[in-house]
């Protein structure tokens, strides 16, 4: 089974890019972030025509998450993170698909730091860590996938010395991510590419994509039952080079059958 995460940066404005990628890459399940659309404007019909059913948690102009599937029904189990410090923001959706429980998330950016936005990011991360602990304790095959807005190590950021004051690279945020992994989650992309410089995001400015001045902020974390089935993990980097594309590239993993 091939499962992907993709921050589309506007599901309606980037719909041609999304549909082109779905056709070319053919993931079985997709977690989307930054829909930037209310529930009533999610392009369910176009996505259904591409062969995918969907559940989504939208918000006008900002945020928004969704899960797509072409391999069976999506059984939504949760909409919104427990104890979210600002539940009006649509940042978390959870569903069982084809025997896997998937938590799709869009973690707050947190800039500027310090300030209320950074405080919110810390609080949201703490709520995620608490919920993730319960998911792991269930013993189920679980995945947390999405835009975490954190570069875990210096290997995950171009010129890390330039990011020391940024909320995506703050020591508190990197420590929170490490605490999450320490629960028992496997960072799928880094597991199979332990020493590689590999990015998932390139800014629109300063020719960042061409220079490969990127960040790795989109992650797929696997519980032990899923980590044992991991056979591949890649970034569809070329999608970032398409016309009118997102500033993120899709990231996907392949799981062996049980």
Automatic annotation (TrEMBL):
The record marks 248 as: Interaction with DNA substrate. It holds the Pfam family Exo_endo_phos. One of its GO terms (molecular function) is double-stranded DNA 3'-5' DNA exonuclease activity. Its EC number is 3.1.11.2. The keyword Chaperone does not apply. Probably binds two magnesium or manganese ions per subunit. The record marks 218 as: Important for catalytic activity. Keywords: Hydrolase, Magnesium, Manganese, Metal-binding. PROSITE patterns: AP_NUCLEASE_F1_1, AP_NUCLEASE_F1_3, AP_NUCLEASE_F1_4. Its cofactor is Mn(2+); Mg(2+). Mg(2+) binds at residues 7, 34, 147, 149, 247-248. The active site is at 106, 147 (proton donor/acceptor), 248 (proton acceptor). Residues 4-248 form the Endonuclease/exonuclease/phosphatase domain. The record marks 149 as: Transition state stabilizer. It is an enzyme of class 3 (hydrolase). InterPro entries: AP_endonuc_1 (IPR004808), AP_endonuclease_F1_BS (IPR020847), AP_endonuclease_F1_CS (IPR020848), Endo/exonu/phosph_ase_sf (IPR036691), Endo/exonuclease/phosphatase (IPR005135), ExoIII-like (IPR037493). One of its GO terms (biological process) is DNA repair. NCBIfam families: exoDNase_III, xth. Belongs to the DNA repair enzymes AP/ExoA family. This is Exodeoxyribonuclease-3. It comes from Novosphingobium chloroacetimidivorans.
């Amino acid at each position: 089974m091939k499962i992907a995460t993709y921050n589309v940066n506007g599901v309606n404005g980037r719909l041609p890019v999304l549909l082109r990628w779905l056709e070319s890459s053919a993931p079985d399940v997709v977690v989307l972030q930054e829909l930037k659309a209310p529930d009533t404007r999610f392009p369910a019909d176009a996505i259904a025509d591409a062969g995918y059913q969907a559940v989504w948690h939208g918000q006008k102009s900002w945020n928004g998450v969704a899960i797509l599937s072409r391999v069976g029904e999506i059984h939504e189990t949760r909409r919104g993170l427990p104890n979210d410090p600002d539940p009006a923001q649509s940042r978390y959706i959870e569903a069982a698909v084809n025997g896997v429980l998937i938590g799709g998330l869009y973690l707050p950016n947190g800039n500027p730091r310090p300030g209320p936005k950074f405080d919110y990011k810390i609080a949201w991360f703490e709520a995620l860590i608490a919920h993730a602990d319960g998911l792991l304790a269930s013993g189920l095959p679980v995945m947390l996938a999405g835009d975490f807005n954190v570069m875990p190590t210096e290997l995950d950021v171009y010129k890390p010395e330039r990011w020391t004051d940024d909320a995506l690279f703050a020591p508190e945020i990197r420590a929170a991510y490490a605490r999450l992994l320490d629960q028992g989650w496997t960072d799928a992309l880094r597991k199979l590419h332990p020493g590689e410089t590999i990015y998932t995001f390139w800014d629109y400015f300063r020719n960042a994509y061409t220079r490969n001045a990127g960040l790795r902020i989109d992650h797929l974390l696997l519980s032990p039952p899923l980590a044992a089935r991991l056979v591949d993990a890649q970034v569809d980097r070329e999608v970032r080079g398409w016309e009118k594309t997102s500033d993120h590239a899709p990231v996907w993993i392949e799981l062996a059958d049980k």
